[in-house]
């Protein structure tokens, strides 16, 4: 392969030399084509086919480099959930509830993983209606080691099994994010039942609406593109951009959290007793694991290890750093002291905000989006929350909901090529399409509104149902004693 | 016999222990405690939620001494635990009726 590529490069350099002397204008076009990541490999394969066996068309196969990267990326997203998110949240509760948080995240992750294989993947990622997929791949039926999943380049594939696993981790972190809103006061059994309902009726349809499409190979010409486009999810058809899950994961979970803490009510002693975090140290470790894992989340969403993946990496890194600074300096100016909890929260806010935008923003756009997210999320958890008076214990809505909405709308701005963004790729003309910021902002608003309303309604019904069947809240006595001993029969610390 | 109970700043604990050892005091009991006095508490801020921490951590030292040595011991603790700033703590001296060494059954001054 290596020698093959170098032969091809040599050939193209030679042809460049020829064209450059003759027609300078044509060479510019040639360079542009080369910049598209998949093009060289495809052409090289075609060249070899002609020389070696003109009749044989090489069967599509998974790209080994991309496959290797997707395996690593999937592991990184798992690291975000366990232990990343668990520690990030766990550090923020009182010591008597530490294990309840760790346990909720751990078991939600495991439960969702199994549900994903049984019906989740099929409902989210097979062709069906605009809102739900079909049941063709229940129990992962029909998937073999040779099954391929499309990437964002024509003719480039990864094994479907790793795509299944990668998407599994997304479906598993989302319900786990919600529990931050009502930490320290809800029954473990109620959380598990809620997870099953919400995962089925809010996560799966949102993932289908935003991400399901026929893949780039179907977009051969305008007519084929229209036909393929009609099979895609509702928000995909609306043109809403969500690179790594700002809408599907963060707005979706944030709204479910807000509805939850409004319906469940405040913790006993809210604003009267000290409900201070028991270990900001744990929270810092968790936030750092989230930050590292987020490279799998965002960069892995590119599905290929190429130049765009590198851009996504840089954007993710810079947005988190800028948001940390945004939050910390806002806090320092307005509250007197820059806090570690503020730094950790800021990093997560920036990661949330860049998630939908990371494949379309430029590095400076990412810094801008991060800075704004840090300041806005700081405002939402310190001012907005106390004005409205709800007890979103660990700010699932304040950081993920608000940061997610900001990121979804901000994507329309930072994606603009005029502001250093990459613009949106047109798979029919195989070039960057003309960019219309207002039009894109409308598409993004569709995504935000649908996610807010859909998740809001499903969450409300799910909480009501669970409250009737099991009861959401623990008794006052249990809440005072702490969930660790009462629900799990254990204590986090024996000091 | 006297029981001296001293509440001191935690980081002064080692100095106090050394000062008492120099006097020949052969044992003390130390407890980590919380409380408030004139120093009062401080405020902590977590994501905008303000918590007033009323009780500050202190070290409580209990030491039993003979009547003759009580004044010296109090002076030693007082000197060792002093920073001159608010929150240095307090020393309480109470009369002690009886002391028994469990291993040997000795009582009174001999048990100290």
Summarize the structure.
By secondary structure, chain A is mostly helical.
Structure in words:
The complex is a heterodimer of chains A (495) and B (112). With 495 residues, chain A is mainly α. Helix content of chain A is 67%, strand content 2%. Chain A has 18 helices and four strands. Chain A has helices at residues 2-22, 24-35, 39-52, 64-90, 98-125, 160-178, 188-211, 222-229, 234-237, 246-264, 280-300, 307-335, 340-354, 363-388, 396-414, 437-469, 476-481, 483-488, and strands at residues 148-150, 157-159, 425-426, 431-432. In chain A, strands 1-2 form a two-stranded antiparallel sheet. A two-stranded antiparallel ribbon of chain A has the order 3-4. In chain A, helix 10 (246-264) crosses helix 16. The longest helix of chain A has 33 residues, at 437-469. The N and C termini of chain A lie far apart (59 Å). In chain A, 52% of the residues are buried. Chain B has two helices and six strands. In chain B, the strands form two sheets. Chain B has a four-stranded antiparallel beta sheet with strand order 2-5-1-6, with helices on one face. The chains are: A mainly alpha (495), B alpha+beta (112). Chain A binds chain B through residues 92, 271, 274-277, 335-337, 339, 341-342, 345, 381-383, 385-386, 395, 398, and chain B through 44-49, 51, 53.
Low-confidence stretches of chain A: 1-53
- Strand tally of chain A, please? 4
Which residues of chain B form runs of ≥5 with pLDDT under 50?
A: none
Structural class by SSE content of chain A: mainly alpha
- Taken from the alpha-carbon principal axes, the silhouette of chain B is elongated
Average pLDDT confidence of chain B is 92
The helix-strand sequence of chain A is: HHHHHEEHHHHHHHHHHEEHHH
Instruction: Describe the oligomeric state of these chains in a short phrase.
Output: heterodimer
Structural class of chain B: alpha+beta
Overall morphology of chain A: globular
Percentage of residues in strands of chain A: under 5%
Strand coverage percent of chain B? 35-45%
- Strand arrangement, largest sheet of chain B? 2-5-1-6
Q: Biggest interface, which chains?
A: A-B, 20 and 8 residues
Question: How is the biggest beta sheet of chain A arranged?
Answer: 2 strands, antiparallel
């Amino acid at each position: 392969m290596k020698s093959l590529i170098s032969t091809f490069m040599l050939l193209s350099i030679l042809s460049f030399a020829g064209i450059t002397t003759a027609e300078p204008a044509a060479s510019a076009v040639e360079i542009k084509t080369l910049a598209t990541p998949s093009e060289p490999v495809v052409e090289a394969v075609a060249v070899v086919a002609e020389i070696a066996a003109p009749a044989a068309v090489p069967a599509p196969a998974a790209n080994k480099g991309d496959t290797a990267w997707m395996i690593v990326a999937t592991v990184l997203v798992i690291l975000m959930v366990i232990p990343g998110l668990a520690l990030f949240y766990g550090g923020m509760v009182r010591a008597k509830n530490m294990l309840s948080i760790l346990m909720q995240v751990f078991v939600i992750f495991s439960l969702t993983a199994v549900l994903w294989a049984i019906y989740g993947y099929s409902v989210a990622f097979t062709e069906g209606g605009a809102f739900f997929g079909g049941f063709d791949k229940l129990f992962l039926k029909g998937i073999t080691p040779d099954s391929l999943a499309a990437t964002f380049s024509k003719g480039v594939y990864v094994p479907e099994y790793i795509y299944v696993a990668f998407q599994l981790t997304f479906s598993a972190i989302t319900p786990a994010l919600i529990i931050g809103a009502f930490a320290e006061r809800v029954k473990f059994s109620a959380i598990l039942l809620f997870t099953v309902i919400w995962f089925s009726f809010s996560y799966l349809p949102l993932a289908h609406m935003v991400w399901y499409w026929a893949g780039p190979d179907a977009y051969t010409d305008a007519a084929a593109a229209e036909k393929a486009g009609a099979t895609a999810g509702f928000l995909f058809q609306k043109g809403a951009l969500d690179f790594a899950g700002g809408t599907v994961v963060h707005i979706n979970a944030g709204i479910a959290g807000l509805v939850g803490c409004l319906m469940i009510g405040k913790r006993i002693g809210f604003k009267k007793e000290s409900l201070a975090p028991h270990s900001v140290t744990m929270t810092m470790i968790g936030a750092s694991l989230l930050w590292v894992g987020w490279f799998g989340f965002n960069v892995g969403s590119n599905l290929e290890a190429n130049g765009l993946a590198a851009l996504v990496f840089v954007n993710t890194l810079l947005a988190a750093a800028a948001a940390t600074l945004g939050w910390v300096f806002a806090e320092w100016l307005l509250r007197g002291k820059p806090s570690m909890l503020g730094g950790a929260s800021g990093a997560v806010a920036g990661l949330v905000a860049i998630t939908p935008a990371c494949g379309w923003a430029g590095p400076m756009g990412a810094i801008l989006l991060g800075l704004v997210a840090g300041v806005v999320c700081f405002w939402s958890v310190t001012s907005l929350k106390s004005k409205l008076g709800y007890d979103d214990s660990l700010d699932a809505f304040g950081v993920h909901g608000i940061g997610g909405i900001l990121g979804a709308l901000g994507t329309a701005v930072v994606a603009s090529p005029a502001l250093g963004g990459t613009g949106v790729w047109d798979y029919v003309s195989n070039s960057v399409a003309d960019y219309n910021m207002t039009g894109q902002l409308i598409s993004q608003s569709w995504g935000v509104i649908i996610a807010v309303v859909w998740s809001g309604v499903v969450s409300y019904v799910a909480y009501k149902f669970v409250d009737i069947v099991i009861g959401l809240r623990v008794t006052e006595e249990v809440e005072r004693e702490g969930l660790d001993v009462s629900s799990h029969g254990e204590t986090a610390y024996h000091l | 016999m006297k029981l001296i109970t001293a509440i001191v700043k935690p980081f002064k604990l080692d100095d106090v222990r050394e000062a008492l050892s120099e006097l020949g005091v052969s044992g003390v009991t130390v407890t980590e405690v919380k409380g408030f006095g004139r120093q009062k508490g401080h405020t902590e801020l977590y994501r905008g939620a303000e918590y007033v921490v009323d009780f500050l951590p202190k070290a409580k030292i209990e030491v039993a001494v003979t009547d003759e040595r009580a004044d010296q011991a109090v002076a030693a603790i007082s000197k060792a635990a002093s920073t001159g700033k608010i929150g240095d703590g307090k020393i309480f001296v109470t009369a002690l009726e009886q002391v028994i060494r469990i291993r040997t059954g000795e009582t009174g001054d001999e048990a100290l």
